[in-house]
Amino acid sequence: MIDGRIKIFVTGTRGIPDISGGVEKHCQELYPLIAAQGHDVFVATRKSYVNDPGVTAWGGVWLIHLYAPRKKSLEAAVHTFLAVLKARQVNPDILHVHAVGPCLMVPLARLLGMRVVMTHHGPDYERQKWNKPAKLVLRLGEWLGGCFANEVIVISRIIETLVQKKCRRPCHVIYNGVRLPEKTEKTDYLETIGVSPGRYILAVARFVPEKGLDLLVKAFKEIRGDFKLVIAGDADHETTYSRNLKEEMAGDDRIVSTGYITGEALNQVYSHAGLFVLPSFHEGLPIALLEAMSYGLPVLVSDIPANREVDLPEERFFRCGDAPDLKKKIEALWDKDLTVDEKNHFRNLLAKQYNWDKIARQTIEVYERVLSG
């Protein structure tokens, strides 16, 4: 560190910008803010996800594109191993590792003399897509990161309790964040996908079992009405689940699958939705929910602990995995806008607790704590 300028090397993410995933969104928002404070930030990307490998800087952040196999069981481990070796060449003040899988490499980084910060985004071993051996590896990554990192950041109180129990150490709770958006009046993208403003339910998620999109499709097909369901997302790795989900959606002309969308297209579907639904079985702290709240949308979410940690009225939860209850709650909330009190509560909550500028300051304070130790 020179004159307070910290050199940070980041791994554990597929990359930035505009690459799908909660960790990716987190990094895309956080690191330009840290770079804007005068720090040097290097993000190791997975080359196969990068739209233009010729781009080596974005938002004041240096991008280092590294090989990663497009095989879900190997991708994170191989990429993080290569990233740690690359980080040693860069010689950062801080190596910041995101997510429990990549944290398998935290002991290696420490052996190479690096100071490491880990961010725990959630117990990934609870995701339904992993088999038993993979879940054991992810649990090992969680333990190695929690025990060997210099400092540990968690994105929710629930994860804090988990790490304290397993690794017997204190953590820094630094939430995910969201920016208050500029809602758009434009509807040209909506016209291309055949939906009308205010006449559709929106879900934004990857096509993986733990997101519960099949449950939402099942519940929606039991509902009669002149509104549609728009699902924005896709699969990173095509699976039997994702193929079956696409077949289910294709069989109903009231269901619209947009694929991955960003920018103005995503802004339009958020700006004009009538209801946002998050039917997840597993989350860390859901950025998609925070984004929906930032647009002032009525929301309906599963009653898992991560969603419960966001301060919502009881009527905005349904029993996780219960399609009839989801159907019942959609019918109750459809065409029911937020009250003025709810809108004010959402806005105040987001500004106070889920503010990216605050999150950037808190993260830098963790770096400074490591360097002063």
Shape: globular
CATH class of the largest domain: Alpha Beta
What fraction, in percent, of the residue positions are helical?
Answer: 40-55%
**Roughly what is the average pLDDT, rounded to an integer?**
94
CATH fold name of the largest domain, please? Answer: Rossmann fold
| Total separate domains | 2
Protein name: Glycosyl transferase group 1
Keywords: Transferase
Domain Glycosyltransferase subfamily 4-like N-terminal: 21-179
GO molecular function, one term: glycosyltransferase activity
Task: Please give a structural write-up.
One of its GO terms (molecular function) is glycosyltransferase activity. Pfam families: Glyco_transf_4 (PF13439), Glycos_transf_1 (PF00534). This is Glycosyl transferase group 1. Strands 3-4-2-1-5-6-7-8 form an eight-stranded mixed sheet, sandwiched between helices. Strands 11-10-9-12-13-14 form a six-stranded parallel sheet, sandwiched between helices. Helix content is 41%, strand content 16%. 43% of the residues are buried. The protein has helices at residues 22-36, 75-90, 106-111, 132-148, 157-167, 188-193, 213-221, 240-250, 263-271, 287-294, 305-308, 323-333, 340-353, 356-372, and strands at residues 7-11, 40-46, 57-58, 61-66, 94-98, 116-120, 151-154, 172-173, 200-204, 228-232, 255-259, 275-278, 299-302, 317-318. With 373 residues, the chain is an alpha/beta fold. The protein folds into two domains: 7-177 and 355-372, Glycogen Phosphorylase B (Rossmann fold); 187-352, Glycogen Phosphorylase B (Rossmann fold, 3-Layer(aba) Sandwich), CATH 3.40.50.2000. The model has no long low-confidence stretch (mean pLDDT 94). Helix 1 crosses helix 14 (356-372) and helix 7 packs across helix 12. It contains 14 helices and 14 strands.
